[in-house]
Amino acid sequence: MGHHSHSRSLQCRHVDAGSCNGCEQELNALTGSFYDMQHVGLDIVASPRHADALIVTGPVSDTMMTPLRAVWAALPRPKRLVALGDCAAGYGVFQGAYATRGGVEGSMRPPDVVIRGCPPTPAEILQGLTAVMDTLLEPSSFIDSQPSADLVEARRIPPLEQPRGDQTPGDVGEREI
Ligand code: SF4
Fold it and tell me: Band of the pLDDT at 8, cuts 50, 70, 90?
């Protein structure tokens, strides 16, 4: 990225909800000197209380659903939910697997931003997280952090390669959060 402003920043909490670790490796690449995510105002924080956004990787395994919901509940508003990778988006190689919950949407609620890919590249992740920063700058985000279906659709980051055409997100379960 050519320039940045310190008026923009995004602190992110990341939860691995059953991924193969591929998405984590690409996310970790952002912290190196080449992509230098901190230089553009992005950072990964240890506590959800300090986070503006929750990044989820993996298809959301049965055992991770409750901890994931607890972390999401701990983020202060306004907050953003990011599905990173095809698994978290409800697609991917684990789609429909017996111990999974259909990604972020199937286990919790529709994500604000979806970054497709298996895994997405660091550049695609950077693009997606920058889009999250933009949504937090919108005045409406201070009134209601629940995304409308139109907003979710508008924020979807297309993958470089087309996904398999007939796939749809997995089962949609409870959505009390
Ligand atoms: S999207 Fe691909 S790389 Fe990411 S967790 Fe799923 S299988 Fe692994």
Answer: confident
